[in-house]
Amino acid sequence: MLSLVAVAIFVHSKYMREQPPWLPAVVALLLVVPVAQHLKRQFTKLVFTGDKIRYEAGTLSKTTRTIQALKVQDVRVDQTVVQRMLRIGNLSIETAGESSRLTVANIDSPQAIADRIIDTAHPARGQAGGSAQA
User: Fold this and answer.
1) What tens digit of pLDDT does each residue of 71-100 get?
2) pTM score, whole prediction
């Protein structure tokens, strides 16, 4: 451990004098965006309770939306190339009603969650599809 500290001090003393003074600020700003997105993802969740799907988002203030599973009409997953590499994606749930579309951005395993929503919304379809493949 002491050797790592010595190497860090050596590298800092030798190379950091040659760096522009604004470089640490730029590096810190570049790290702020991914950290903020990660925290936002950690405080966003979908909860399946019986015949309802509850969407919760927020850290200090919270937004909650409850959807009756039977009202789900369409579930869509959109992924960019970067999202596919990170195994995340945007999940859109379309329902019958006034506020008809809910989009959850950058959710982990979006296709598995979309399949679960469809199975929850239409359990007979999920069972029929599963028995046809068996």
Assistant:
1) 899 999 999 999 999 899 999 999 887 677
2) 0.63
**Beta 88-95 vs 44-49: how paired, if at all?**
unpaired
Q: What's the CA angle centered on 36, arms 30 and 39, to 5 degrees? A: 145
List Cβ neighbours of 77 (8 Å cut-off, separation of 6 or more). 89, 90, 91, 92, 110, 111, 114
Cβ of 75: how many Cβ atoms within 10 Å? 19
**3-state DSSP call for residue 100?**
coil
Domains and CATH numbers, the chain: 19-133 (2.30.29.30)
62: Cβ contacts below 8 Å, ≥ 6 apart: 56
Q: How many CB atoms lie within 10 A of CB 50?
A: 7
